[in-house]
Design a protein that fits this description.
This protein has 463 residues and is mostly helical. It contains 18 helices and no strands.
Length: 463
Amino acid sequence: MRDIALAAIMGVLIPVSFLRPWIGILVWSWFSYLNPHQQCFGFARRDVPWGEFIAIATLGGLVLTKDRKPFIWCRETILMILLWLWFTVTTIFSWYPEDAWPEFERLSKIILMTLVAIPLIQERARLRWVLLVIAGSLGFYGLKDGIFVIATGGTYIVGGPPGRTFVSSNNALALVLNMCMPLFWYLRKDEPRRWVRRLLTATFYLSAITVAFTYSRGGLLCLACVFGLIGARSGRWILVFPLLGLAGVVLFAVAPEQWVARMHTIQTYEQDASAMGRLQAWGVARQIAADSPIVGAGLNVLNRSETWEKYAPELGLRSTDAHSIYFGLLAEQGFVGLGLFIAMALCALGSLISIYRAAQRYKELSWAADYSYMLGVGIFAFLLNGAFLSVAYFDVAWQFFALVPVLKRLVARELESLVSSRAGAWAAERTGTSVAVTPSLPAAVRLRAGAAAAILPRGDRRP
């Protein structure tokens, strides 16, 4: 029954994705993050390449539609494309091409659809829909598993959907919910529908419970940081840390013994096999980078038993991963790939800080301050929590990076319009007539207009 229902839904959504390719981006995001086919048991799960159908329909619609904007060329998109090209180079020179090329194909689909979204969602309403789809798709698991945790008293470890997805493991689910916590919190602020506001609020708190009971130690620490950053923006710093401490005390008091024992291993990591396995994997990654510092060893190198037999035969490990964004990139992409990735992340965070500062000056841009802050906290959570997980190619993170240029363009255009209208009002007040904005306006007005140029993507700046 589930298979037939999903087939019927996709039978409608795929043609719509062709006719309205920006909706195809929503469908792609929904399908990639919710993974509805993993909830099926028959042909819809095993035999139908739904993702390929959605991508083909969206790309075909992109070619034919006039409803698209120019691509945004800025530092974030340039670095993303350079990284994609570098992945191609490292795959060509990979140590195990039979493993690297299938992973490269999967990664290329993610990056392609991420870049395709940029010319299609350059409207504020569409950007909001993308964020709502991300929040709803991943929040489904936070909401569902949070209810399950309450019903069972936290006895069981919760995880994402079954199958080979990015969020199937408990640790990955903790990471993605930490990334989405700011979305749940800030999207509800200007949501006109009461039921959606209540749903987002419930998802926020239940997702926090879910993160705690994924039994992920890194996820719990990251959750505390995310709560601290969200609480700090309210201006009530003095209350943030006492409330976090109180929540921690309550959590340790009501949690089952196995959960408490798991969290206590943070202090005694030398005695924990999982923690020591991470340290050993990082050591192997460093050795690989020392042997191939420029191009690394290619995708999936740490999943090969031959790698462990060569670099750590005494450990008896035959299949694992890097357990870190940074060490994984170092082993697979070399120092060049790691440097490009860190540069892209830092540029995205820098742009979001610039947007936030510019938006705070104007009441009309309060929405932009919320959007920049929630994306910034989400990327920060990815970089922090991902230090202990191999999630460098996580599709949600790449979509967050791609949304930064879109937000820059939207805010810069709105800021230019806002500054122009205020400058025109200033000129009219001085002369008694309505005049256009000219270079003769006072320096203060020109400086404010410069704020728009400071965050505007280079290709969109006007003289």
